[in-house]
Design goal:
This protein has 86 residues and is mostly helical. It has a domain of 39 residues. It is 58% helix and 0% strand. The chain is built from two helices and no strands. The longest helix has 37 residues. The radius of gyration is 32 Å and the shape is flat. 0% of the residues are buried.
């Protein structure tokens, strides 16, 4: 008879059932959820008006710069393809 290459087999360990969480005690109501959301929103530190304009300008500037960069790369590759394919 052929021997099992993995070695002797063991019986599976008995599984232990974990207690189910009591969902009724957790307060899963919509009101509780909204109170928690409002509580978290009060902790948020919003930027000042000056920071808002500064960072918005930065995002717009970087977006325009990357747009020009990608447009330039596209133009160069289009010219190369035109030269190669005739």
């Amino acid at each position: 008879m052929a021997r099992n290459a993995a070695g002797p087999t063991r019986a599976a360990a008995p599984t232990r059932l974990l207690p189910r969480p009591d969902l009724a005690r957790r307060g899963n109501s919509a009101g509780q959820f909204l109170r928690e959301v409002w509580s978290e929103l009060r902790k948020v530190v919003f930027p000042t008006r000056r920071e808002l304009f500064k960072l918005t300008g930065l995002v717009i500037g970087v977006s325009v710069a990357i747009g020009f960069l990608l447009g330039g790369v596209d133009f160069v590759f289009a010219q190369l393809m035109r030269l190669i394919l005739g």
